[in-house]
Amino acid sequence: xxxxxxxxxxxxxxxxxxxxxxxxxxxxxxxxxxxxxxxxxxxxxxxxxxxxxxxxxxxxxxxxxxxxxxxxxxxxxxxxxxxxxxxxxxxxxxxxxxxxxxxxxxxxxxxxxxxxxxxxxxxxxxxxxxxxxxxxxxxxxxxxxxxxxxxxxxxxxxxxxxxxxxxxxxxxxxxxxxxxxxxxxxxxxxxxxxxxxxxxxxxxxxxxxxxxxxxxxxxxxxxxxxxxxxxxxxxxxxxxxxxxxxxxxxxxxxxxxxxxxxxxxxxxxxxxxxxxxxxxxxxxxxxxxxxxxxxxxxxxxxxxxxxxxxxxxxxxxxxxxxxxxxxxxxxxx
Amino acid sequence: xxxxxxxxxxxxxxxxxxxxxxxxxxxxxxxxxxxxxxxxxxxxxxxxxxxxxxxxxxxxxxxxxxxxxxxxxxxxxxxxxxxxxxxxxxxxxxxxxxxxxxxxxxxxxxxxxxxxxxxxxxxxxxxxxxxxxxxxxxxxxxxxxxxxxxxxxxxxxxxxxxxxxxxxxxxxxxxxxxxxxxxxxxxxxxxxxxxxxxxxxxxxxxxxxxxxxxxxxxxxxxxxxxxxxxxxxxxxxxxxxxxxxxxxxxxxxxxxxxxxxxxxxxxxxxxxxxxxxxxxxxxxxxxxxxxxxxxxxxxxxxxxxxxxxxxxxxxxxxxxxxxxxxxxxxxxxxxxxxxxxxxxxxxxxxxx
Lengths: 333, 352
Fold this sequence. Notes:
By secondary structure, chain A is mostly helical. Chain A is built from 15 helices and four strands. Chain A has a domain at about 95-145 and about 215-325: MetI-like (MetI-like fold). Helices cover about 75% and strands about 5% of the residues of chain A. In chain A, the strands form two sheets. Chain A has a two-stranded antiparallel ribbon with strand order 1-2. A two-stranded antiparallel sheet of chain A has the order 3-4. Chain B has a domain at about 105-295: MetI-like (MetI-like fold), CATH 1.10.3720.10. Helices cover about 65% and strands about 5% of the residues of chain B. In chain B, strands 1-2 form a two-stranded antiparallel ribbon. A two-stranded antiparallel ribbon of chain B has the order 3-4.
């Protein structure tokens, strides 16, 4: 009974409260409005930059891709509208753009699963108890800081480390000489997969993945940390109840760990795609950069990179669409 | 209770204490029962496997650094000697000396340090600000604006190469420069005509991009900060508001000290990525006037590379340049790595 009376009173009180902000408005803005204003002030630097600098740059870039540009001697520049000429040049006249684009995208599609899977694997191992965990974590994160920009450019043109890794040919009985730089040879894997009824494509993919290990490890630092943070946010109580119910580690992984980190898989896949296709050592990007250096290549490279951007946006949308239907969210609030 | 064992004997020692004696299973027997079984074996094997795998991957990451460091101490003779792999026979510091004096390493280091420090600090505060705005305030267009942040992250910067250059070569926002004429140009100490400013070969383009949260990977920093602030309970700020503190006082007094780890993370990223950046520096610094770290990667004049081991020697020299560039970052990383790891782990990064 008491509760009911309270509820009634509460209702009346609410009525009074509804009036209160109305009266207050004459004096000053309500808290919500004040907070909204403060929010605008906090975001203001970005809005200013986006509207005054970024949008004009995007607009200019699109505009340049439809124009020919001439830098005048006295300063200033002159644009002549040429329509779709740059785009058609990129596709039809330039001999290597389309092939580079196709092989670059193929490489992207092959790299992404291996990077995401490898970083998940490493994160799961790092999340267990192991001696020197902090040291391993620090080591795995080194490439994120150090293998960017300049350093990766130096590495790309580096014949030294491959020379040092060479330890003479290893005769694997296949007639071909494989070097230690190729950690495993195609022959070994083929022998391994011989009776397993899998196609040669898979064999090649695995071999490439293993031989590319340095590249893959270098690129999965951030993803690994994101997975780690996801793994650590899983409540230990879930694992405890699993082990009490008698689930094996294998079952726990598929039924608990994987669904719980599936949002991270989505984030990481998208991050990896963005990272892979905006990085300078990507073959399409480096091709576009070389085109930019050529005479009259700057507008052509704009057109090329816009086409590239469109293709990757499509891939991104497709991947995000497919993956998000598999993602499991623990709570929806 | 335990009938299998001989029943323990109880002796009364004094009035209040008793002593119980019973046959214990010997220590070795107990340990044997505990450790020599399939379960322990499985655990040990799995542990060893994990540990060796981690060691192997660490080796893959660290080996190139070892090879770079060892080759930087090699004399030219070592590169033609087949017996020399990792340990130089004629250790020398000539390569370092030549790079430091001929390529003006310290000048470039100082310039890059100033640029990276300024950009790092600006980006840290600005992204902190913007991220907080996105995380804690509901206003119209919040989500749309955040989509714009994601958009700036997705567009590859090479797409904007030409227009970025043009923007800062002929810099003029809404005709303000045109209006003010020469005054602003003198004030900023840059050259240019009366209708626009020429910002090329100054630090201004990078400062302006940093100030507006548009520089390299700033979208990622804003995203990280936003996720972090969403993890901070609203009650904290509400209690501050109740005590009469304004939005900004709450931000500077309570939120900033709380987010130190995350801010250090963002600063380290911004600093290191600006340090090794060669896209923006090549774009905005066209003449040799501004000495930055990318300019020192070349073979010094005093070193003679014209002999049989040329290719290897040149790449060793380039790697030595790389080591000199990385050295300050490695020191910074040794001190700051735990902040990076903690920062991201605590950000509670989720996909929502």
